[in-house]
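QA checklist item 7 of 12: single-chain prediction sanity check.
[x] sequence parsed
[x] length recorded as 145
[x] structure emitted
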Amino acid sequence: MELQQTVEALTAVLKNETAAARDMEAVLTRKRSAFVRWHTGDLAAVVAEEEGIIASLNRLEKERVAHVRTLSRRYGKMLSMKEVLAYYPSDELFEAYDDLRTVSARVIRWNNQNRDLVQSSLTFVRRTLGAITGNFRYKLLDQKV
């Protein structure tokens, strides 16, 4: 494959990764809603969808690495995406890379928020179970000290 074709293939992979990341963002929004409503049926469906998207992202990531490896050969080292952009300037490649970074940052933020929500729910459940069972891990306000 000619280098220009590799750059074009890399651009297509980045665009596909961005589309998958946008799908993941939508799934994470629904996941948060399922957490808030404590709806296990919705959560199970969302997690199954999330697993499919993760599988797609893993496949796309392998393709991306293969294309970057091809572009890196002439430099004797594995290039970072920033180096690829510097050595193989392409407005379309830059735009695809920038879009992926933007969407990925939002996905990371959603994941962090969902993790915090789950952690908060877990803390609530532990405290509630402690109050019910008498196995207090934390002193409750209405308990004698």
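[x] summary fact logged: Residues 91-133 form the longest helix (43 residues).
[ ] second reviewer sign-off
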